[in-house]
Specification:
This protein has helices at about 5-15, 35-45, 60-65, 105-110, 145-155, 185-190, and strands spanning about 25-30, 50-55, 80-85, 90, 95, 115-120, 135-140, 155-160, 170-175, 195-200, 200, 210-215, 215-220. By secondary structure, the chain is of the alpha/beta class. It is globular, with a radius of gyration of 17 Å. Bound molecules: ribulose-5-phosphate.
Amino acid sequence: MDQEQVKAMLGAYAAHYIDKYLTLESYVGIGTGSTANHFIDALAKVKHRFAGAVASSNASAERLRQHGISVLELTQVDELVVYVDGADEIDPQLAMIKGGGGALTREKIVASAAQQFICIADQSKWVKQLGSFPLPVEVIPMARSVVGRALAGLGGKPVYRQGFTTDNGNIILDVSDLKIASVTEMETAINQIPGVVSNGLFALQGADVLLMDKADSIQEITAHQA
Ligand code: 5RP
């Protein structure tokens, strides 16, 4: 099975996995990226089982609409039964680096409204220690250089993501070489830099469940198993 087939298997599995949480009144939070796209495609087959979805990006919203799934704003919904999304890296505590697709801020917001964060990730995303994948940081455009200097002060090498604007009208700095001794402390420290909108560490609120491939099947890993 190639990586795309694994992602398709994860998307289909997740659509089946969340069935136990769905009612005709429930709303589902939807992530962004190629794995999340497979989940959206699989979710279309059970769209009669829930009320609608809240998307973490314009791209995911568009894909949901193309499947005839009702898309609501987060302001219209009190709570999401689940949030399902991919990751760029995930560790044994189910803390993640996300934002390779640049949707990290909306992902964090939509995930925060969900009862459960279900991460769907192929084995290539599993790491003992977060930090090999450059950490995406969403930044207000006027703060680009001041935030860049502050990130360098934390030991990182920030690189401006050329030609990319987030759905919120901001820029992304991708930060490599960060030594992340404490993931929660680093997440908090970066959030405190003036001009940072959010960063791609999802540790203060990580995933509750990881669905990851093993051989040709899927393993379910929960945070407390770590
Ligand atoms: C987008 C994300 C994605 O979840 C992450 O980049 C993984 O993407 P993919 O499923 O395409 O590998 O955080 O902002």
